[in-house]
Amino acid sequence: MAHPIGIFDSGFGGLTVFRAIAQQLPAYDFIYLGDNARAPYGNRSFETVHEYTLQCVRWFFEQGCPLVILACNTASAKALRSIQQNDLPHIDPAKRVLGVIRPTAELIGNFSTTRSVGILGTQGTVLSQSYPIEIRHFFPDIKVSQQACPMWVPLIENGEQHSAAADYFIEKYIQELLAQDAAIDTVLLACTHYPLIEEQIKAHLPRHVQVLGQGAIVAHSLQDYLQRHKEMDERLTKNGEVLFYTTDDTASFDKQASVFYGQPIQSQFADVTPL
Ligand code: DGL
Q1: Per the confidence metrics, is the pTM higher than 0.90?
Q2: Taking CA atoms, which of 26, 234, 249, 252 is between 20 and 30 Å from 15?
Q3: Which of the residues 56, 65, 149, 191 is marked catalytic?
Q4: Ligand 1 mean position to 52 CA, how many Å?
């Protein structure tokens, strides 16, 4: 039986992270799952995001994955801690679930000269305060400003990211972020969809502000984790096999997903709800 690394997202966005991971670790087997039937997670409650994410994590375990990456900021912010601390000890203490917030928080302070950073994310990620809390652990001197961008995911999911409406909402949220702290010199795209509008975001920011995506950061962090945890690395199968699953219609997933992944995708249907 294959023992792939599971990569989870509420929908398509995690593919921007998975793309970087697959490039960094081409020998490993992977299963990607998008919970498209219930996406977006961005405005959902803690309880709902935890319930949905846990169902998907259990599904990955049934597929033979010993390690699951929540390649979704909202799920990492609202479900990861509870899954790690309360659920995994009962389900299988030898399995691991990791997120995208900590690896980013560990590095972000290395990029800022002014010690002022901006976080752009979904409502759920921002309200969870996960980024300010995690960043404070590693860089107590960094001032963190956050801006929720609730219109961006729906615009991107509907293929409207290059429309005048998208431009309006990109400018609006960027202005709201900069109004919080004019010294911001580093902006993190803390949502897996946002790399698709990275160029438009940059166009509305002063030139000296750097924009960070999470793909490369998370991919390097996973590689480092596997080097440090040989017992996990030895359990993972390495035949370079990649499978894609969605909880919704496969044909529409394939069409949209290839835009996020940068390559054609053929997905299969996954029923993640308990019997
Ligand atoms: N993947 C989610 C994230 O990174 C965005 C999409 C959603 O709201 O479900 O926050």
Answers
A1: yes
A2: 234
A3: 191
A4: 13
> Mean pLDDT, to the nearest integer, of 116-134?
96
How many A from CA of 230 to the centre of ligand 1? Answer: 31
pLDDT tens per residue, range 206-246: 999 999 999 999 999 999 999 999 999 999 999 999 999 99
Give the pLDDT of residue 169: 98
CATH topology of domain 5-99+216-269: Rossmann fold (3.40.50)
Report which protein residue has its CA nearest ligand 1's atom 6: 40
Three-class secondary structure assignment of the chain = CCCCEEEEECCCCHHHHHHHHHHHCCCCCEEEEECHHHCCCCCCCHHHHHHHHHHHHHHHHHCCCCEEEECCHHHHHHCHHHHHHHHHHHHCCCCEEECCHHHHHHHHCCCCCCCEEEEEECHHHHHHCHHHHHHHHHCCCCEEEEEECCCHHHHHHCCCCCCHHHHHHHHHHHHHHHHHCCCCCEEEECCCCHHHHHHHHHHCCCCCCEEECCHHHHHHHHHHHHHHCHHHHHHCCCCCCEEEEECCCHHHHHHHHHHHHCCCCCEEECCCCCC
Q: Which residues line ligand 1 (CB under 6 A)?
A: 9-11, 13, 39-42, 72-74, 122, 125, 153, 191-193
What ranges do the domains of the chain cover?
A: 5-99+216-269, 102-213
Asked if domains 5-99+216-269 and 102-213 share a fold, the reply is yes
The question of whether 56 is a catalytic residue gets the answer no
| CATH fold of 102-213 | Rossmann fold (3.40.50)
* pLDDT band at 43; cut points 50, 70, 90: confident
